[in-house]
Design a protein that fits this description.
3 helices; cell division; transmembrane; Cell_div_FtsL; rod-shaped; mainly alpha
Length: 111
């Protein structure tokens, strides 16, 4: 009895419903919306993962950049130390056995 009533209700609904296609397309629309939600969720997860991966790479590169800048600064300091007159005089004295001449060792030559 209940099934007959349900069938009667469905047939009257089809007969009186002004938009027959809407009732027929309803399951397809729901499946489409479900798939759109599923794809959107997948896109969000993928984008989030890619963003985190790229951020980790950015942090690694910034750390490497800071290390290289520190090394560059140390090299500049070392270069400055190597070119000071005191350092050059020390190397000349130790390796080449050069010395500053005494007053008695200096000869003035005039043209």
């Amino acid at each position: 009895m209940s099934m007959e009533r349900l069938g009667l209700w469905a047939s009257t609904l089809r007969a009186e419903w002004p938009f027959k296609l809407r009732l027929r397309w309803w399951p397809m629309t729901m499946i489409g919306l479900f798939m759109a939600c599923l794809l959107t969720g997948l896109a969000v997860v993928t984008t989030t993962h890619m963003t985190r991966t790229q951020f980790a790479e950015l942090q690694r590169l910034e750390q490497e950049k800071n290390q290289l800048q520190t090394e560059w600064g140390q090299l500049l300091l070392e270069e400055g130390a190597w070119s000071t007159p005191a350092r050059i005089e020390q190397i000349a004295t130790e390796r080449l056995e050069m010395r500053i001449p005494d007053v008695n060792d200096v000869e003035v030559i005039r043209p």
